[in-house]
Amino acid sequence: xxxxxxxxxxxxxxxxxxxxxxxxxxxxxxxxxxxxxxxxxxxxxxxxxxxxxxxxxxxxxxxxxxxxxxxxxxxxxxxxxxxxxxxx
Length: 88
Hints:
- The chain is mostly helical.
- It contains three helices and no strands.
- Helix 1 packs antiparallel against helix 2, helix 1 runs parallel beside helix 3 and helix 2 packs antiparallel against helix 3.
- The longest helix is centred in the first third of the chain and has 35 residues, at 5-39.
- The protein starts with a helix and ends with a helix.
C-alpha cells in the first residue's frame, strides 16, 4: 500500500474508475446479447434500436477511453456478422 497521501488518493480514484469501466463494459455485453436475442424474432424495428444502442455504447466507450477504437469496431463488426448469419 502507498505511504504518500496523494498516492493513496490515486489508488482510491483508480479503483473507482475501474468499477465504472467494468460496469460500462458489462452494459455493452448486455446490449449485444439483447440484440442477438431480438435477431431470432420478427420485430425488425426493435432489432434496429438494439443495434443502434450497441453502436452508441461502443462509440461512447471509445470517447471516454474505456475501449480502444479497434476493439469497439471489432465488437460492432462481430455483432453485425452474427446478425447476418442468423438472418439466413
